[in-house]
Structures are given as C-alpha cells and as structure tokens.
C-alpha cells in the first residue's frame, strides 16, 4: 500500500538562509521545528462535522499551514542550492548545508564534492509540491481526517513503516505481511514525512521528472500535472491517479482558501 516509509519522523528540514554578514545566520542545524505551526496545534474532530462544506474547510485550514511552511523552506533551500552550484569555494557552512541536503534527500555527495550532476539531481528533489496535490492526497487517504490512522496516529497519507511497534497494525493486513501504518507525534510530522518520501523515493522519480520539465519549460507546477507521477503510490495505479486528479479539480475552491 502506498509509500515505502523509512524512518522519517525525526528527519529535519534544512535552513536555507544566506550567510550574508549583514543579517543573522540561521545555521542548518537550528531549523529543527519539532512543533507544528500554531494552526495545527489543536486537531479538530472532523467526524463531528455534519455539513460536508464545513468539514472540508476545517480540514484545509488545519493542514495547509504546514504544507505552506514546508514549501517555503524548500523554496529557500532551492535558492541556496542554485547559488552554490555556481560557487567555486563553498564555506564551511555551505558544505554543512550540502551535507544535510544529501542526508535528507538520499543523495550521497561524490567523494570529490558536489558536482554539476549532483546539483542537477538535488534540484530535482528539493522542490515544492503544490498544496492542492498534497491536500487532495491527505483528504483521500484519511477520509478528510476521519480515518482511524489519522485520528489515532496522525497519519494522513497512508505511510507505512516496517519495524515492529512503529505504528498501527492495519486490520486488513494480509497474512505474512509485516508492515504497519506509521504513527506520528502530530499531523505536521506526517506532512513532513510525505514531502520527504515524494521528493526522494525512487518510486516517484517520474513525478520529479515531470516537475523538472515544467520548470525548464517555464510552465506552472500544478498538482494535476505532478499527480501523473504517482502511479506507484497505490496498487490501483492509474485509477488512483485519476481519482486524485478528480479530487483536485472538484475541490479547487477549498485548496485555494487561506
């Protein structure tokens, strides 16, 4: 089912701040946000909403701040990566930044240091995911926040883990299977894990290729376009992709709120 989930709950996003002397520098190891944005501190009981419109609005209002925050971090990281790709003499902080990118995005640095091929691939992975795609998948996988895994484990994307006790055992797990549905401290950790999975998992390399091609062509990066690279997210393949695209289009007014 869906994503192959590695040990991501403790993974940290990276600082992409400049080392410019006129401004305080946020070191790469200081941006370790363990707490969710204020809007995500109190999780609504989505099952109590009797009016579907109100449930959807509440769902987006709850999750979107985390999505926007992470996309903001990624955008800043891309700027720094782009700058460093043209830098002949990286500083100690620059090298630490590149090492953290390599670690978080499963992209080992060459022994001789970051080269053009490494930067090209890094910029494929360190890139935004449109909020309409993230939220559509979250809504689909969690039943708009009402599933047991979302309520009890803060898992909104169906992520799996493979260590005994790492999450919750699904009731429909086939005999002989050992996976569990990952449990997170809060919903924000689930969102971060989703971003890391999609941006570094081999299964979604086609999504990253689509995104990179859109950038090269100067076209908008849209959720509908990127969803075509999610054929491996579900055993249902293209049928799953079609349903996600339908959700994006049908619920457009909710994704754009806030």
TrEMBL record:
SMART domains recorded: LYZ2
Gene3D superfamilies registered for this protein in UniProt: 1.10.530.10
Pfam families reported in the protein's UniProt record: Glucosaminidase (PF01832)
Domain Mannosyl-glycoprotein endo-beta-N-acetylglucosamidase-like: 108-241
Keyword Signal part of the UniProt annotation: yes
Listed InterPro entries: Bax-like (IPR053195), MGlyc_endo_b_GlcNAc-like_dom (IPR002901)
Annotated keywords: Signal
PROSITE patterns: PROKAR_LIPOPROTEIN (PS51257)
Signal peptide interval: 1-20
Protein name (record): Glucosaminidase domain-containing protein
């Amino acid at each position: 089912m869906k994503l192959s989930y590695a040990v991501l709950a403790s993974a940290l996003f990276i600082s992409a701040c400049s080392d410019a002397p006129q401004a305080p520098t946020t070191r790469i190891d200081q941006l370790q946000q363990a707490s969710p944005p204020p809007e995500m501190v109190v999780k609504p009981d989505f099952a109590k909403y009797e009016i579907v419109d109100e449930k959807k609005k509440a769902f987006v209002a709850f999750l979107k701040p985390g999505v926007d925050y992470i996309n903001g971090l990624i955008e800043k990281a891309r700027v720094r990566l782009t700058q460093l790709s043209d830098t002949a003499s990286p500083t100690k902080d620059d090298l630490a930044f590149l090492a953290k990118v390599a670690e978080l995005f499963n992209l080992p640095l060459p022994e001789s240091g970051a080269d053009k091929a490494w930067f090209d691939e890094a910029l494929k992975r360190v890139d935004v995911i449109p909020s309409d795609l993230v939220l559509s998948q979250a809504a689909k996988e969690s039943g708009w926040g009402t599933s047991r895994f979302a309520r009890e484990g803060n898992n909104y994307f169906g992520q799996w883990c493979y260590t005994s006790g790492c999450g919750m055992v699904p009731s429909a797990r086939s005999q002989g299977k050992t996976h569990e549905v990952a449990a997170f401290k809060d919903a924000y950790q689930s969102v971060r894990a989703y971003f890391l999975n999609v941006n570094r998992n081999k299964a979604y390399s086609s999504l990253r290729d689509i995104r990179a091609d859109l950038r090269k062509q100067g076209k908008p990066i849209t959720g509908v376009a990127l969803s075509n690279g999610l054929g491996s997210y579900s055993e249902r393949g293209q049928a799953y992709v079609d349903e996600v695209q339908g959700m994006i289009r049908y619920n457009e007014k909710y994704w754009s709120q806030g």
